[in-house]
Amino acid sequence: MLTTVVGSYPAKIQKPESIKEKFKASLGSYDPFRPALEQAVEDQVNAGIDLISDGQIRGNMLEIFAESIPGMYVEDHKPFINGKITPLSYSICASDIKNTLNTAKKISSEFKTDLDLFDGDNFQENFKGIKGIITGPTTLTLSSMIEGFYNKDKKEEVVMDLAWVLKKESEYLENAGAAVIQIDEPFLSTGMADLKVARKAVEIISRNLKVPLAMHVCGNLNEIWEELLKFKVDILDCEFAGQPKNLQILENTNLRGKKIGLGCVDNKTNKVESKEQVAEILNKGIECIGKDNIIADPDCGMRMRSREAAFSKLKVMVETVKWLS
Asked: Which end of the chain has fewer CB atoms at under 10 Å, N or C?
């Protein structure tokens, strides 16, 4: 059973301290986020996580993309759409994927890019890789204020235009060394999203990708589970620790060839679970869909947790997976 993270990790932005760093800052070449990225990677690798992320250290899942995509801007941490959304000629996150891979390799030689995650229909054992993460087009659209160009009452065009932008970004991430691409779509469980439009957008992103595609959806999924299973993704990642009723939807379900990212630690509290608590959730999942169909991870991103709590939660999750194996 592989272990992964949903994405974000506690980040502490570091001001330049050494003479070299201050000199770089004077030239405009110092990256204050780089130490936070290295810290996030170090913690994930040392906790024993198989599929790690860059920690999404440059901001929240909306701002990272909205502040760079043509036709969008961010003000007071709120994304706005004021023009035609068009693809970028550069990647938003590829450089962080490369830095994540290089940092991970320095800590553990197991992290590589020349392996396929899937070996037939199953995961390779002891696979170590990087997950590239994009915020989904539906979530970006429904989180943004539409000020111009698009009709506020017809959001499908916005979702589709964003899908083409994010498709290109996913290709950049794949080429940078990502072993998996994950689309974050928390808005799919809110009742606000048009699931058919969302599915069409994900199909656009999935085209011609060589690596597995995952989609993260948190919240209560009872009303939308069957629709989610229709999405063209390889891995469906969901919240189960904080939403225990979601475990019921796994009973007698046809996964349609998908693997399930089983959220088994709660990201909403600093309280660290025991191995027994994590094992209880994982065992229920195993009873329903089998160990081979599960990837263990937290319910959602861990940005709001303390670094100590985040690391401890990841560590107990890894230890529990090894215990169950």
From this structure: C
